[in-house]
Amino acid sequence: MSDHHDHDHDDWPYPHPKQPDLEDGPLTHHMAMAEAVAELLIDKGIFTADDMRRTLEVIDSKSPAEGARMIARAWVDPEFKARMLEDVNVAAEELGIDAGTIPIRAVENTKDIHNVIVCTLCSCYPRYLIGLPPDWYKSRAYRSRVVKEPRAVLAEFGTEIADDVQVRVHDSTAELRYMVLPMRPEGTEGLGEEALAELVTRDSMIGTTQIKS
Ligand code: FE
After folding, report:
1. 64-206 belongs to which CATH class?
2. Annotation says 119 is catalytic
3. Which end of the chain is more exposed for a tag (fewer CB within 10 A), N or C?
């Protein structure tokens, strides 16, 4: 056979690596638990399968754009910023954004303080406002290292924090999720709210990057 392909897989005739299906591995304890609890709640009529699907659809529809819209408003409107720092979920409603019922707290970056968020236990994240977390946010490496050596972790994201700037790490939980209110970059005085929102990235709201103009 002259067919050349540069990796070989037993009984796998296609020229790309085999990706295992989700069902190929055993369920973890928590996966089995989640399935069992969902099944029970549906069986007992607490909610329907359709309710659950709809809720998942709402969560999946969230994106960093909604958080970015809030940040841009906070940059141009100090009173809105104060309300956002007081209560993100309530302030979100002013912009017609449903940030869900789990409290989200915004932590503000200043020239003296840089904030970064993590969930050391699992993957708590303000999903209802800024969408699903990136895979690395859920990795053991990020979760364990960012609390111990935040500056080193930030440097790996290309984010150098000056020595005279304090780095604060905030550990999210099931009851309280954090988001970073990044600093408005210099040279953006002439920009309108929409253009400002476009500068705001997902990672800047996690705190692993700063916004550059
Ligand atoms: Fe968590």
Report:
1. alpha beta
2. yes
3. N
In angstroms, the CA 202 to CA 122 distance is 19
Number of other CB atoms surrounding residue 103 within 10 Å: 15
Residues whose Cβ atom is located within 5 A of ion ligand 1:
119, 121-124
Q: Where are the domains of the chain?
A: 29-60, 64-206
Catalytic residue among 63, 122, 139, 144: 122
Closest of 135, 111, 112 to residue 123, by C-alpha:
135
Active site residue 122: yes
38 phi and psi angles, rounded to 5 deg: -60, -45
The pLDDT of residue 92: 97
CA 62–ligand 1 middle distance (angstroms): 18
Q: How far apart are CA 19 and CA 50, in angstroms?
A: 30
pLDDT grade, residue 212 (50/70/90)?
A: confident
Give the tokens for residue 104.
């989200």
pTM tops 0.90, yes or no? no
**pLDDT for 116 beyond 80:** yes
